[in-house]
Hints:
The chain is an alpha+beta fold. The protein has 4 helices and 4 strands. A hairpin with a 5-residue loop joins strand 2 and strand 3. The radius of gyration is 20 Å and the shape is globular. The model has no long low-confidence stretch (mean pLDDT 80).
Amino acid sequence: MAEWVVCHWTSDAGPTGLPRDLWNMLHRAHYHHPPEYTVAHTNIGPASVEYRARVLILSRAYVGSQPLEFTGYGSSLHRAINNAAYIAMAHMLHLHVELASQYPYHPARPLGEEVHLYLSAEREPNHVLRNLAEYVRSSDHYHRVIGLELQQACGRITYLERLIEPYVRMGHIPRIKLYDFILSIV
Length: 186
């Protein structure tokens, strides 16, 4: 199995994006420390790298509160961090009911589950918000499907890289042409 090498660590949420949204959510749930991201990478093929981001959420100042850790994967450092932040946000919404009124249409996810839960928008009196809620649900499902398809495609590319690598080493296929093509489609 490939070895993971730590390549990045930060607690900076940045000005925008899912890490900033996660920090805002944690702040509203009375967490006092920003989430800490640790990113590692591993070579999954001759020219392919996979990133794993772990986000550590330190415990609140309440008795019995435990630190939480969530993991996300991606083909780049930023994709992995955003994936981990998104997963953490979904779990935090499930853990902290007080956040439901501030994030009513963001998906929630119980710990240990792979399925997102959504609040029903059927009783939403504002038709614009009701349509927005349905759009968010559809968009989330679409992104999950696209993400799974991307993972499968990357797996196939890695498999093909391994099959072709001996021919590259023998000089039958130029290294630059092969890997420039593979990197351009990922």
